[in-house]
Design goal:
Blueprint lengths: L3 H23 L7 H14 L5 H7 L18 H17 L6 H29 L2 H14 L2 H7 L5 H15 L6 H14 L16 H26 L6 H4 L11 H6 L5 H4 L2 H11 L2 H16 L18 H17 L4 H26 L1
Helix pairs in contact: 1-5, 1-7, 2-3, 2-4, 4-5, 5-6, 5-8, 6-16, 6-17, 8-9, 9-10, 14-16
């Protein structure tokens, strides 16, 4: 039997080791899309505005001006909200410019802490329905054999590990015996201000909706999601339309690239993370609503004008649905236990080989980029 506490200590240690090794090698943690998420945080805390001219000049990036004559930033405000406590504390100590390596380390470390917290919440969820051994095996598989390892340990100044955490929080409230629909709404709003597409998680509410629940649910959701609406209003002068849609990007719903999104060598979900095929199979018999959310996410991503997901390690836009795949993996592991599989079989035949493959893919991706 695997001791869950020891397993989480090992997971945390490996994630932290990976983060600091990568960060000190690059001498930075903010790059790529992370620049734009980080710019929200730095500009609001240090400059006390949403004029990103200073941030973009520092990071050598450019964006067109909005109708408000401010540099555009289509990326969400949610990550900045979650990163802010440690960032503000570091700033209170250092009183520097908000760019140096310690600020960046603080933000990256915060994402790791949220990732580990998400894994703990997910373990507690799984353990309601499965044995402790099955639950911790599913957690180890998600932690090391999927791209959560990349986005939760290496490329942490991004939205993906935080969307994983938010999904675990949402599922924890949704699947609680005593449901608090205000908190469910809050957590759905949190998902929305990290990655807007994850509002699709609201589909899981349908079996529980009653007229008396709609008001607290919507109120909770609006409290959090209004932060994104306010940001769009200030920056773009329009809180009703996502800047993704007004900036020339969009959807081709009936010409979706579903096969490529799932199996393309470039960033295909199952090509880069084959263990999720098992997870998907495990959702067919049970948890069909979970499978529906995943399928809708596939359709959304496959219909998007940038369906290949840019410089993505695997299917990065699916990190938020890894908790759902975890239930599928637990179903498969439980079935195999019924047929006589021992603990070592799971580790030696499934989890270890696919985790090693994931590490090799990560090295290949880093060398290629």
């Amino acid at each position: 039997m695997i001791n869950p506490a020891k397993a989480f200590v090992v997971i945390t240690a490996i994630y932290i080791l990976g983060f600091f090794s990568h960060a000190f090698y690059l001498k930075k943690t903010v790059y790529g899309d992370g620049i734009f998420y980080y710019s929200w945080l730095r500009s609001i805390v240090i400059d006390k505005d949403v004029n990103f001219t200073d941030e973009y000049a520092h990071f050598h990036v450019q964006q067109p001006k909005t109708l408000q004559q401010l540099p555009a930033n289509k990326y969400s405000v949610g990550p900045a909200l979650l990163w802010s406590p440690l960032f503000i504390w570091i700033h209170s100590v250092m009183k520097s410019d908000g760019y140096n390596f310690w600020y960046q380390l603080a933000v990256g470390t915060t994402s790791i802490l949220f990732t580990i917290t998400g894994l703990i919440l997910l373990f507690r969820l799984l353990n309601r329905y499965f044995s402790q051994t099955t639950s911790i095996l599913a957690i180890i598989a998600i932690a090391f054999a999927t791209n959560l390892f990349f986005y939760g340990s290496l490329d942490t100044v991004n939205s993906h590990s935080l969307s994983f955490f938010a999904a675990c929080v949402y599922l924890s409230f949704l699947l609680a015996k005593e449901k608090n629909f205000f908190l469910i709404g809050i957590s759905l709003g949190l998902l929305g201000i990290i990655r807007t597409q994850d509002i699709i998680y609201g589909i899981l509410l349908l079996p529980f909706l009653r007229w008396r629940n709609i008001f607290p649910l919507f109120t909770g959701f609006l409290i959090l999601f209004s932060l994104q609406l306010i940001a769009w209003q200030i920056l773009y002068g329009n809180f009703l339309t996502s800047p993704y849609l007004t900036g020339g990007e969009g959807f081709t719903w009936w010409q979706a690239h579903a096969f490529e999104v799932l199996f393309s060598p470039k960033s295909g979900l199952f090509f880069w993370t084959p263990i999720l095929l098992l997870g998907c199979a495990g959702l067919f018999k049970k948890n069909k609503m979970f499978l529906l959310v995943i399928l809708l996410q596939v359709w959304i991503v496959a219909s998007w004008s940038t369906w290949w997901q840019g410089a993505s390690y695997g299917g990065r836009m699916f990190v938020s649905v890894l908790p759902l795949f975890a239930f599928g993996l637990a179903n498969i592991f439980q079935l195999l236990q019924h047929y006589g599989w021992k603990l070592n079989y799971f580790l030696l035949i499934i989890i270890s080989p696919l985790s090693m493959l994931n590490v090799l893919f990560i090295f290949f991706f880093l060398l290629r980029t």
